[in-house]
Structure of Adenosine 5'-phosphosulfate reductase:
Amino acid sequence: MTLLETDRPTLDLEDIVESAAVALEGASSLEVIRWAAATFGDRICLTSSMSDAALIHLVSKVKPGIDVLFVDTGYHFAETIGTRDAVEAVYPVNVINVTPSRTVEEQEAALGPRLYGRNPDLCCHLRKVEPLGRALEGYMAWFSGIRRDETASRRDRRVVEWDRKRGMVKVNPILDWTQEDMDNYMSDNGVIVNPLHYDGYPSIGCAPCTRPVAAGEDPRSGRWAGTGKTECGIHL
């Protein structure tokens, strides 16, 4: 039984978000996760791109057995699929493979080849945003691994937010972590890391839209390089 079911059954979710965002600003990641787990119970999940398992490791310490949603776009690197399989084998979580409504072949038959190059926003919507939206429908809240230091559009985010697009609560436990914090946590805890990180890919998306990053470049400059695009749309 969750706090929603016992303490405040009629309280609007947006009211919960506002009070929690204020109360938890500056709280530790584990405090944020404990609050979310106590509030939403089994109606909260975690999403992961399988770039690394830092958030999965962190959340599973508080809520073992949590659903982890991975959007399999059909364009992932083999290393990313391997990371997903390793996470499923190692951590006490329930990995759910989320797929788009069309296979890559069906999409190309309907919209032409290499949509990712001609219209990356549409491709991301069809292969990431829309399928994740469907998968999240059974939950009241979701854990996200976004950080303020990643992009300009994430600098004003809050640790607990109202996801207006999906009508649910979004919880960002590692929002204030730096890359150094991430590296230290993964090293100290032996966290599974996508091997592409060691080959010059600090930010990993679909294979056709991700390139290695040279020393000194912005870590996300390898995503949709040359297009001006910085987000897939999931976190907008």
